[in-house]
Specification:
- It is an enzyme of class 5 (isomerase).
- One of its GO terms (biological process) is response to endoplasmic reticulum stress.
- Keywords: Endoplasmic reticulum, Isomerase, Redox-active center, Signal.
- The structure is a single chain.
- With 542 residues, the protein is α/β, with parallel strands linked by helices.
- It contains 17 helices and 19 strands.
- The chain has 4 domains: 134 residues, Glutaredoxin; 134 residues, Glutaredoxin (3-Layer(aba) Sandwich); 86 residues, no CATH class; 127 residues, Glutaredoxin (3-Layer(aba) Sandwich), CATH 3.40.30.10.
- The strands form 4 sheets. A 5-stranded mixed β-sheet has the order 1-3-2-4-5, covered by helices on one side.
- Strand 2, helix 2 and strand 3 form a beta-alpha-beta unit.
- Bound molecules: 2-acetamido-2-deoxy-beta-D-glucopyranose (NAG) (4 copies).
- One 2-acetamido-2-deoxy-beta-D-glucopyranose binds next to helix 2.
C-alpha cells in the first residue's frame, strides 16, 4: 500500500520556475535501454539514480544541486556512480518505482534494491542519505568512539542518535540485530539521525561496570535527542524496535519539517496539524495547549505544527481544506482521501481542540470539499460604511501613534457570525464617522484574505480590538460585551487615549433623538426601564 498524506515533502519542488529546458548533463552516464539498466544493476553494487524527464519543468532546476552531489561523489572511495534516466525516453523504469507522476526522483540502488531519497533540498542531505544506505549502522568499538557518537553539534537541532547494544550477537534473519539494521535503512531519510551498533562483549561489560549512562543493560537500545535525556529500550522486555525508535524519536508536539517527515510517515498515524504564524507573539501559547491535548491522545494520533505563513506550506494547508489566511488553524492530515479541517475562524482553545480530536476518533467528522474564497456581496453591502484595512496598510493605519483605532477582524468565508455582526458594527462605524471625532477610526480587516499582523491574536473571528492612540503594543483591548451598538460605542469612549465624550444616545442620529424620548414616555415604567437599559448611557462592564 502506498501511504499518502495530503501534506508531504515529496518531492521538493523549487518555487518560482524560470527554467523550462530540461538539462540532464550531470552524471556519469545516461541509461540507454532496459538491458543497459539491468547490466548496470549487476555491475554496480551501489549507485545513485537520478530520474528526470523532458516534460518535467522542475527537473532542470535540480541540476545545479546534482552537479554538487556529483562533485561530492567523485571524492568518495570507492567512487559511487551517478546514473541518469530520461523517463520520457525510457518508460520501463516505471515498473520499478511507485508514484512516478512526481519528478525529479532520486534513488540509491543497493544490491538491486531501490531506496528513495525524499528531500532534494540540500547536497549534504543527499550525500548523508547515500552514506546511510551504504552503511546503515556504524560500529562502535571504543569508549572514545562512543563519546564522539553521542556528541551533538551545537547548531544541529535535528540531532538524533540511536545505539543498539547487542551482547547476544545473534545473526539470524529474525534476530533483533537484523531488525535493527532494517530499521536503520528504513529511516535513512531521517535527516540528522545516526544509528550505531555496539557488539564488542568486552567493551559492553566494561562500560556497564563503569555505570555508563548509555550502556545500562546488555541488550538494549539507547536513544538521544538534542538537549534531552537518554531513553532506553530493554530488548529483553520489548522488541518493537522500529516502533520504539520512531515514537521515542519524535517529541509530543514538533514542528513538521522535511527533516522529520520521514519519521511521521513511518509511524503512519493520522496527524493533527496546527498552522501557526511563527512570528506571532502568541505562538508558544498555542503550542502549549496543543501539547496538553497531545499528552492525552498520543496513542493513535500524532500532533505537529507548521508555519502557516510560509508560501509553500500555505499551498499544503489548502489541500487540507484550510483556505483562509486565519492563523492558527488546524486540520487532520490522514492516510486516506478525507479532508478534515477544523472550521476556520471558530475559537481554538484547549477544550475545542480536545473536542475536535474526539470527534475525529469517534468518526463524527465529515469530509469536506475544498471551496475557493469568493467575494461575498451580501457581506460587503452590510459592511458598506466600514472602511477596510489591508495587511499592507496595517502599520500605517492601525499601529501608528496618534489615532485610536477600533478594528474588527472578521472572515468573509463561511462565517455566519461575521455576517450577523454586520448591522451593529457597521452602525458603529457609521456613527463615529458622523460624530466626526478626528482621532477615532473604525476599520475592518478580512482574515480570510489578509494575513494578520504578528502582534495580533486571533483565536477566533469575528473579534474586535481597540488600539489606543499611544499604546500600540500588545495585548490590545478586546471588546467582549454584547453585539449592540451603544455598548460598543461607549467601549471606544472608555479606552481611547485621546479622550472625548459621547452624547447621550450616541447611536441615534439627531432626528431620531426627539422621537426616542417621546415614544419612551408613552411606555409602562417597566418597559421604559428596559428601553433605557438598551440605549442610554450606563455602567456597562466594558
Ligand atoms: C526569471 O528570469 C528573468 C530574466 O532572466 C528574471 O528577471 C526573473 O527575476 C526570473 N524570475 C525568477 C522567479 O527567477
Ligand atoms: C546545463 O547544465 C550545464 C552544467 O550544469 C550548464 O553549463 C549549461 O549551461 C546548462 N544548460 C542549460 C540550457 O541550462
Ligand atoms: C545525457 O543525455 C543528455 C541529452 O540526451 C545529454 O545532454 C547529457 O550530456 C547526457 N549526460 C550524460 C552524463 O551522459
Ligand atoms: C573490544 O573492546 C576491547 C575493550 O575496550 C578492546 O580492547 C578490543 O580491541 C575491542 N575489540 C575489537 C575487535 O575492536
Amino acid at each position: 500500500m502506498v501511504i499518502l498524506y495530503f501534506i508531504t515533502f515529496l518531492p521538493f519542488v523549487l518555487a518560482g520556475s524560470n527554467c523550462t529546458l530540461p538539462n540532464f548533463s550531470v552524471g556519469d552516464f545516461n541509461i540507454t535501454s532496459e538491458q543497459h539498466f539491468k547490466d548496470t544493476m549487476k555491475q554496480e553494487e551501489i549507485f545513485l539514480l537520478g530520474i528526470s524527464a523532458k516534460w518535467c519543468t522542475h527537473c532542470c532546476q535540480i541540476e545545479p544541486i546534482y552537479a554538487e552531489v556529483f562533485e561530492a561523489l567523485e571524492k568518495l572511495t570507492p567512487k559511487i556512480k551517478f546514473v541518469r534516466i530520461d523517463m520520457s525516453k525510457h518508460n520501463f523504469i516505471k515498473k520499478h518505482i511507485p508514484g512516478t507522476d512526481q519528478l525529479p526522483l532520486l534513488y540509491v540502488i543497493k544490491k538491486g534494491k531501490f531506496y528513495r531519497h525524499e528531500d532534494l533540498m540540500k547536497v549534504e542531505n543527499i550525500v548523508s542519505f547515500l552514506d546511510k544506505i551504504y552503511m546503515p549502522v556504524s560500529t562502535i568499538n571504543s569508549e572514545d568512539e562512543l563519546e564522539a557518537f553521542f556528541e551533538a553539534p551545537r547548531e544541529n537541532k535535528n540531532f538524533l542518535r540511536v545505539l543498539g547494544i547487542f551482547y547476544e550477537n545473534d545473526d539470524s534473519e529474525d534476530s533483533p540485530l537484523k531488525e535493527y539494521e532494517k530499521t536503520a535503512i528504513s529511516l535513512a531519510n531521517w535527516i540528522g539521525s545516526k544509528m550505531g551498533i555496539l557488539t564488542n562483549k568486552t567493551l559492553i561489560k566494561e562500560l556497564k561496570a563503569k555505570g555508563s549512562d548509555v550502556v545500562r543493560c546488555y541488550n538494549c537500545l539507547a536513544l538521544k535527542k538534542k538537549d534531552a535525556n537518554i531513553k532506553i529500550l530493554d530488548l529483553e522486555i520489548s522488541q518493537n524496535i522500529k516502533e520504539w525508535i520512531t515514537t521515542a524519536g519524535v517529541g509530543i508536539v514538533e514542528e513538521l519539517t522535511g527533516y522529520n517527515f520521514q519519521v511521521y510517515k513511518e509511524i503512519a498515524l493520522p496527524m493533527l496539524v496546527m498552522f501557526l504564524d511563527k512570528h506571532n507573539v502568541n505562538q508558544d501559547y498555542y503550542i502549549n495547549i496543543l501539547t496538553k491535548v497531545a499528552r492525552d491522545f498520543d496513542e493513535g494520533i500524532k500532533f505537529v505544527w507548521m508555519d502557516g505563513t510560509d508560501p509553500m506550506i500555505k499551498q499544503r494547508k489548502k489541500k487540507l481544506g484550510l483556505v483562509t489566511e486565519i492563523l492558527p488553524s488546524m486540520a487532520f492530515n490522514v492516510l486516506d482521501d478525507r479532508i478534515l479541517p477544523y472550521k476556520e475562524g471558530q475559537p481554538i482553545t484547549e477544550s475545542s481542540i480536545r473536542l475536535f480530536v474526539s470527534d475525529f476518533i469517534e468518526n463524527r467528522l465529515a469530509s469536506k470539499n475544498i471551496a475557493d474564497i469568493r467575494p461575498n456581496p451580501e457581506l460587503e453591502s452590510k459592511y458598506s460604511d466600514t472602511p477596510i484595512v489591508t495587511m499592507d496598510e496595517f502599520e500605517e493605519k492601525v499601529l501608528s501613534e496618534g489615532t485610536d483605532v477600533l478594528l474588527l477582524l472578521y472572515s468573509s468565508y463561511q462565517n455566519e457570525d461575521s455576517l450577523n455582526l454586520a448591522p451593529y458594527f457597521n452602525k458603529v462605524a457609521k456613527r463615529f464617522k458622523e460624530l466626526n471625532y478626528p482621532h477615532v477610526k473604525v476599520y475592518r480587516m478580512d482574515t480570510a484574505t489578509q494575513t494578520v499582523h504578528k502582534n495580533v491574536k486571533i483565536d477566533h473571528v469575528p473579534i474586535i480590538y481597540l488600539f489606543p492612540a499611544y499604546h500600540k503594543n500588545p495585548p490590545y483591548v478586546q471588546y467582549t460585551n454584547e453585539a449592540k451598538v451603544p455598548p460598543m460605542m461607549f467601549f471606544v469612549e472608555k479606552y481611547v487615549d485621546i479622550k472625548f465624550q459621547l452624547p447621550e444616545l450616541p447611536h441615534l442620529s439627531p432626528d431620531q433623538i426627539g422621537p426616542y424620548w417621546e415614544q419612551k414616555a408613552q411606555l409602562s415604567p417597566e418597559k421604559q426601564e428596559r428601553v433605557a437599559a438598551h440605549n442610554e448611557r450606563r455602567n456597562w462592564d466594558l
